[in-house]
Design goal:
Blueprint (H helix, E strand, L loop, with lengths): L2 E2 L1 E6 L2 H10 L3 E4 L12 H10 L4 E3 L12 H17 L3 E4 L10 H11 L3 E4 L9 H11 L3 E4 L10 H11 L4 E4 L8 H8 L3 E4 L2 E4 L16 E4 L1 H10 L1 E2 L1
Parallel strand pairs: 2-3, 2-9, 3-4, 5-6, 6-7, 7-8
Antiparallel strand pairs: 1-12, 10-11
Helix pairs in contact: 3-4, 4-5, 5-6
Length: about 240
């Protein structure tokens, strides 16, 4: 029997989301602000994607860039954004909260998971900044999250595969471990062989030139736009098909 492992693509604008669905991705992580590591999409962005995209979409719930220790006011914003995502009919959300000492903020993560119910909750790469990943895994499971996005606490997942494999073994089916950061069509098979994961994550991101005909020569800015490598998505989809 042939089945397909799942490919999630991280996108940063609506044109990319539309292209990603057409290319055959299974799920979208919806973000704004790539340079800040991803923040919560605006209402208009959320609503437009929900109206136009038919595959599952998990919006990023993160009120700002920077570290992953959040104030009570910021967590309240995240809770309200999660409720909005439920009202708009999204299938899941993506969160990640740490304490100042690098442990998982269990109390507030559990609160956000409860607010999101019955949506599926992914704990994002804040996990890669935590102090004790094996202990953090158990905490995140206790909070009710359904998956962890991780590069194995390394800049690129290919450098963190030993930890990813350890996490998969320790999780033992209780939570999905989803590798990302640096994953591509050339290494996805070796990542799967090493870790036995069932879901993978990438942005397959490319930059396309601005279409603005005029740019003030006295103000030097990079106006390139984020898009996606369609052929790369198709190659990854082909690579993760298994017997």
């Amino acid at each position: 029997m042939t089945h397909q492992r799942l490919l999630e693509i991280c996108v940063f604008n609506i044109d990319t989301a539309i292209a990603v669905e057409k290319a055959g991705a299974d799920r979208i992580e919806l973000c704004e602000n790539y340079d800040n590591g991803g923040t919560t999409p605006s209402y208009g962005y959320l609503k437009s994607v929900r109206d136009k995209i038919n595959i599952p979409v998990f919006p990023m719930i993160r009120s700002r860039g920077g570290d992953f220790f959040h104030s009570a006011n910021e967590i309240d914003i995240m809770r309200k954004d999660i409720i909005l995502c439920k009202e708009l009919g999204f299938e899941g959300v993506v969160v990640g909260l740490l304490n100042k000492n690098g442990t998982i903020d269990k109390e507030n993560t559990a609160r956000l998971v409860e607010a999101a119910f019955p949506l599926s909750v992914t704990f994002h790469r804040a996990f890669d900044r935590c102090i004790s990943p094996l202990e953090a895994l158990e905490t995140i499971i206790d909070c009710g999250c359904k998956r962890i996005l991780t590069s194995g606490q390394m800049p690129k997942v290919t450098e963190g595969l030993d930890l990813v494999a350890t996490l998969v073994n320790q999780a033992n089916g209780r939570i999905i471990i989803m590798p990302g950061s640096g994953l591509n069509s050339g290494n996805v098979q070796s990542i799967i062989d090493k870790t036995h994961v069932q879901e993978v994550h990438t942005s397959a991101r490319v930059k396309i030139p601005s279409q603005s005909a005029y740019q003030n020569p006295l103000i030097v800015e990079n106006f390139d736009n984020d898009f996606v490598n369609i052929e790369e998505i198709k190659k990854i989809k082909s690579a993760i098909a298994v017997n």
